[in-house]
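Chain A, query sequence.
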Amino acid sequence: MADPSTYRPSPGSIPDAPGVYKFRDATGRVVYVGKAKSLRGRLNSYFADLAGLHPRTRQMVTTAASVEWTVVNTEVEALQLEYNWIKEFDPRFNVRYRDDKSYPVLAVTLPEEFPRLHVYRGPRKRGVRYFGPYAHAWAIRETLDLLLRVFPARTCSNGVFRRHGQIGRPCLLGYIDKCSAPCVGRVSAEEHRAIVEDFCDFLAGRTDLMMRRLEREMAEAAEALEFERAARLRDDLGALRRAMEKQAVVLGDGTDADVVAFAHDELEAAVQVFHVRGGRVRGQRGWVVDKAEEMGVADLVGQFLAQFYGEQADLAEAGADSGPAVPREVLVPELPPDADAVTEWLSGLRGGKVRLRVPQRGDKRALAETVERNAREAFAQHKLRRASDLTARSAALAELQDYLGLDSAPLRIECVDISHIAGTDVVASLVVFEDGVPRKSEYRRFALREAAEEGDVAAIAEVVRRRFHRYLKETAGTEPTNGDSPGNGNGGDNGGDVDGGSRPGIDPATGRPRKFAYPPNLLVVDGAGPQATAAADVLAELGVTDVAVVGLAKRLEEVWLPADPDPVILPRTSDALYLLQRVRDEAHRFAVRYHREKRSKRLQVSALDGVPGLGQSRRTALIKHFGSVRKLRQASVDEISAVPGVGRRTAEAVYTALAGRSGEEGESGA
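Chain A, predicted structure.
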């Protein structure tokens, strides 16, 4: 544990100006980023009596080994720079309101010739339009099922779409009029796109125009004695009204706003956001995060707005067509301390005026109270889950320390696993757990060649050697040029980021940690004594003496120590064994996934070997055009011959060859 007085800046060296500051640990890794209207006042507060600091702040300043700052001209610049640094360095003590990728949304694939409507989870893609997020996937499917009667756009995957186009018959949805069946040519691409655009307009809130149009068409059909069409339009109107009823009107004036509320205690905070568009609740999101320091609701509001809308702006710039990053109005429980700067920044993100205010009365106040109740409920549920989760993880790490005789609890655990089939396509994975939780951004994978024919023991040794050789290389930093000790980057008021020289483990070009800069406390290998011994021998050869090694055998779940003839038997119900199993299973999953990717690429080439008239360039052109051999196998001769450079005779040879190999591509892993 570091003493903050050892790296405290000298009195008077900190400028009394707005800026952004970074705390770094002994390895140079950024552990906290903050902003301040006065850098001097804010930074001096971190070096007060430790007993008076917030628990997480106290942990941060004792983890850090240096502090540095950058002076800016305005609070808006400080807000933007703080957000950029948090996104770039991902400091462990900063709160990150990351979007939960499990939130389902309704995606409309507008870039495709025949756009598709489907439930989607994951990162946003360029050009695709998204509606939501929704609390549950079933809510999207229920709404979509109602709307398909009025907007019969396709919802099938690309493979199903092509298959029905080849056989000339629509799917069930096409027969029951919940799809316009563009796959068999019932509607043209232009007509289908018009249906999709009407669907998007309806979900975007332009419902009144749509309802009036249908009512007018229904009246015209009735006057023309087209009673069947009028009855169908009447049913369509009923379906639209039912869909609208599921999105309750909360603000009668058609307001576009985000309503934010918090529930918090000394250590954690829960935030809920309701997205209101056209007066209706279109989506809801929620997070529970650790508080980085002592913060009231006003401070939480400022921090949340900067990070959340910064992320939304990044999504918009990446091409995700989901509307403006910021609505016209943001309703919060309290205004942040720098409300004017935040409002100016939000207006810049939107490209128009944004109102940031606290609702005082009426419908908006009632809605804010509803959002606050949701935040309190989410916080209470989180507390119940978190209590058992934290207790289990702490117990697991403590038990591992006791059972394995370690000097301290293994806060960082890495695990290596090998995957192959009969010695072919040999790959390895390296997964990382910190504080008992996966840190997926630091996962690594390896393609093995030298040890591929020598078995798993040699493969484990090669992976460990490569990983720790990189670690030793990346931590062999140079001495600072200004006479300061490594990591002591006290800044000045020159408006620049003062690093104080290069640091071990930090890339001087980017200022970010290198890939293998941090060693584990415990290295787990998938296997028994021989694998553990091989890994330990490599570490001894490289001179790495502060990393413990164990092997975890799958069959009996025995823990093997290097050069120990007998395993360590952990109780079957122990949290320590459960944690080791989670780490090992995650490494196995990651390795098998990589192995399947490599094997699939190899099979894509081998499936086309020997086809008369098909050379390397044409094979590459076919795979690039169709994306995979599986999709190529589904193509007709005409579709294959449409690929530039592939003639009719060659297309027929490819079609015949793939039809004869239809059962050869399986999927398995070691």
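The domain at 257-378 is CATH 3.30.420 (Nucleotidyltransferase; domain 5). Residues 478-502, 663-670 have pLDDT under 50 and may be disordered.
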